[in-house]
Amino acid sequence: xxxxxxxxxxxxxxxxxxxxxxxxxxxxxxxxxxxxxxxxxxxxxxxxxxxxxxxxxxxxxxxxxxxxxxxxxxxxxxxxxxxxxxxxxxxxxxxxxxxxxxxxxxxxxxxxxxxxxxxxxxxxxxxxxxxxxxxxxxxxxxxxxxxxxxxxxxxxxxxxxxxxxxxxxxxxxxxxxxxxxxxxxxxxxxxxxxxxxxxxxxxxxxxxxxxxxxxxxxxxxxxxxxxxxxxxxxxxxxxxxxxxxxxxxxxxxxxxxxxxxxxx
Length: 264
Description:
Helix content is 43%, strand content 19%. It has 264 residues and is an alpha/beta fold. It has one domain: Rossmann fold. Strand 7, helix 9 and strand 8 form a beta-alpha-beta unit. Helix 1 packs across helix 2, helix 3 packs antiparallel against helix 7 and helix 4 packs across helix 6. It is globular, with a radius of gyration of 17 Å.
C-alpha cells in the first residue's frame, strides 16, 4: 500500500509499469476508486510509467468532512505528481477526474504534455441538481441513489449480461464515504472551467460513451470543440465508465493518440 501526504491529506496511490517510461496519471470518477483502471492498464503499450490514485473522499484516501473545492482536488493531484517527481505526463481523467485534468492543465502546465478527457466536460450539471443529490445522500445514504447512478454508468447490455460484476460496482459506489461523495458533488457544483479550458492548447483526446447517461456525447463534444486541435471519439456500446465496460476499445484509442503525438 502506497500513501502520500499531500497538503495534510493522505492519498492512496499505486505505480506500475516502467519507472523510466513516459508517465500516465489516472484520476477516477465520482463514487469509484482507482480499481476502475484495472482492465485498461494491461491493454496499453508497454514501457509506460503508470500512476493511479484515489481522489480525496474515495477508496483508501482520506475523506474529510465539509465541502470540497475543485482547487483542492487539482492541488492534490499536482502535489502527488510533484512528490513522485512526475512531470511531462499524460493525464487521463474520467468524469470528475477529467475536470481535475482540465484544471491541472490550466494551473500547472509544466506537469502535463497531453491529456485524455473521458466522459467529462468543462461544466457538468447544475448547482441545483448537485444540491438535490447532496441532500438526498446526506438524508438517506448513497444507496438511495445507487440504482439511478448505475443506470447512468453502464449500458443496458452491461446490466443484462454482467450482473455479478454490476453488483461489485454497486458495492464500490455505496461504500464510498458519504463525506467524500457529497464533498466532491459540492466541488462539481461550483466548477465551470469553460473559459480556462477554451484556452488550452496541449494535445487532447476526448472520449465519450455512446450509452453514457451521465455525460452524454453531445455534452462531451462541446468541450472537445472548445480545445484547439482536440480529437473527439465516441466509444460505441460504452456507458459512463468505458475503462470498465470496453477497456480494449478505450486502450486502442489512447495508444493511437500517444503514437500520433510521438509520445510513445
